[in-house]
């Protein structure tokens, strides 16, 4: 059964491969009723998405975003929903984050060259287009050059946090990410949390900072993991969110929009939390 709600989707505005219009056209065919465009450090795709959705009156779009934050030895992604994305200060902050992504990407390409992996930085930027440059764009360039068969391939050895070519960028703590989102009326939600160590402790800390939700219904999670995260959400009085985390990267087994998602009650809870 296809979900009615998918709150985790990416477009060409960050590291997805579909334009906002193409993504809206796709999700409109799936039976989804509510979706969120949650690009990395960018809301640039929202205007086009809203325009495209005018042709699909049964589809509702929630404004979203995904921020990357850091803790010692790990990375935590923070989703935000219903934020005032037109706020000038917020957009200025996002532009700084995107500049950090650009510089980090360039340095990773240089580091790959020292490891015998030769791709062109200009080609990485071409793949990213006007979107926020991310590691998947580097991975796609590596696939083009024949180093790997699919974009997920380079992450374990080269592009992942412990990879040989990984480069840090300007750090932001999860609490700072929560604060940035709440300052513009957004609802902060912890993304794909199952891999985090000491999850209960981290969630309690972030709850103090203003965290209001946690991804539970994530496309690649097993029934047991979803059950466990549902218990975490209930214990800390957090809104259980989720979605497919769809990028259209062409990886084998990539979950399609609507593969997994929270119930419609989650949408109402997010609206209430944001005052929408």
Characteristics of this structure?
7 strands, single chain, 276 residues, 9 helices, seven-stranded mixed sheet, alpha/beta
Would you list the SSEs in sequence order as H and E?
EHEHEEHHHHEHEHEH
Radius of gyration based on Cα positions: 18 Å
User: Could you estimate the helical fraction of the residues in percent?
Assistant: 25-40%
Order of strands across the widest beta sheet?
1-2-3-4-5-6-7
- Class of secondary structure makeup: alpha/beta
> How much beta, percentage-wise?
15-25%
- Measured between the Cα atoms of the first and last residue, the distance is 29 Å
Query: Which residue ranges are poorly predicted, with pLDDT under 50 across at least 5 consecutive positions?
Result: none
**How would you sum up the global shape?**
globular
Total beta strands: 7
H/I helix tally: 9
Main sheet makeup: 7 strands, mixed
Mean pLDDT across the residues is 95
Task: Tell me what you see in this structure.
The chain is of the alpha/beta class and 276 residues long. It is 38% helix and 16% strand. It is built from nine helices and seven strands, in the order E-H-E-H-E-E-H-H-H-H-E-H-E-H-E-H. A seven-stranded mixed beta sheet has the order 1-2-3-4-5-6-7. A hairpin with a 2-residue loop joins strand 3 (60-71) and strand 4. It is globular and about 50 Å long. The two termini are 29 Å apart. The model has no long low-confidence stretch (mean pLDDT 95).
